[in-house]
């Protein structure tokens, strides 16, 4: 399938631009899981990609290339990237209020209902700007694809939720898939959003032919939201479809685990400081963004409890590896600080330097930790998927035990080959850690072997084919290997 036919949209571009110390403009892979995952998808296919200019340097590049440019983001085919510039107030409201304060918080259950949320006039003004953001994205996609007689639209992540409705109005024959990379909450929780937002987003999404999530639990929640909030829609749970405005919209779960090409280029070596600190002791690794859903504080509390209850494990070490993300968001930097304080408290109880905390953007540092781990503790309070559970399984040569939150999307695929825990139950997590650290080499090897066999089924090429097949494109796509 040629790139002239496939048009991909996401908030984040695959690359972001900055100036080095000499003032030279350079490109680097954008931070954030969505951008990197979608970049691999795009390279498999060769596409025209529309994304936001996020920085001043991005906007400079966008001005220099108003019709887009070729960018290389992996070993596969280049993509044609068009950086879309929004009015400053529109972009700021989309980024800081709608994305961070509203949709990320609502879909990840970050509100307690007592102190948050409160929607004021500022929230509603931001929503109007988000509608402008959505309309601009849709108009750009339509303009870029107007010469194409049979375009296919792939819309990735939650900032694109309003776009399908606009595309449907102008190109009703064009297949559309909307993929939401984050969890979808229950209908009661979604009702916390103001009526124009919650109903507007659902109506916007139903312009697509297929609405995809990483896990079946998010599909169920989405269907319940539609049934609860759009009485004119007809939801059929067995077929996971919605009858809407004379059309049938399908909701599907499409699990992704890893990108073979991305893992191939990961080094994960050259960490002498880590090796010197750990030595031959068992190592527990907790890895994730600076985001409260990643739940590092409870992970440290569980590790502390495990070692206090079993003196024979006091030689074990724990590394909390964070990747800085959205630290301008109050909840995120408070989460980072709470985790750092938890590590300090653990070391006062267990002995100096038993637990280490690091917060850097070093991808190789993250993979070095995954390679050295004897136990991977991924205890997110909720997670759309959690690719680290899959990547860590394949990248780790030590038969590491995987302890995984039952509220991760990944739990659907890996439930029978990992130890599932309640992310809020420190006692259960501590018990899982004790058992993991006490497991024999034979037990670990057998468990890791079975888990690798499962994980290998969830590769990126299969994910790409699943998306296109859901639109009836199937073998005609010619997806690149």
Number of helices: 18
The CATH topology of the largest domain is given as Rossmann fold
Give the strand content: 15-25%
Q: Give start-end ranges of low-pLDDT stretches.
A: 475-481
Main sheet? 10 strands, mixed
CATH hierarchy class name of the largest domain: Alpha Beta
Query: What is the straight-line distance between the termini?
Result: 13 Å
Q: How would you state the average pLDDT, rounded?
A: 92
CATH second-level architecture of the largest domain? 3-Layer(aba) Sandwich
Mind telling me the CATH superfamily name of the largest domain? Glycogen Phosphorylase B
How many domains?
2
Describe the model.
One of its GO terms (molecular function) is trehalose-phosphatase activity. Belongs to the glycosyltransferase 20 family. By secondary structure, the protein is of the alpha/beta class. The chain has 18 helices and 18 strands. It has 2 domains: 3-257, Glycogen Phosphorylase B (Rossmann fold, 3-Layer(aba) Sandwich); 269-457, Rossmann fold, CATH 3.40.50. Helix content is 44%, strand content 18%. The strands form 3 sheets. Strands 5-6-4-1-7-8-9-12-11-10 form a 10-stranded mixed β-sheet, sandwiched between helices. It has a 6-stranded parallel β-sheet with strand order 15-14-13-16-17-18, with helices on both faces. The longest helix has 25 residues, at 121-145. The radius of gyration is 22 Å and the shape is globular.
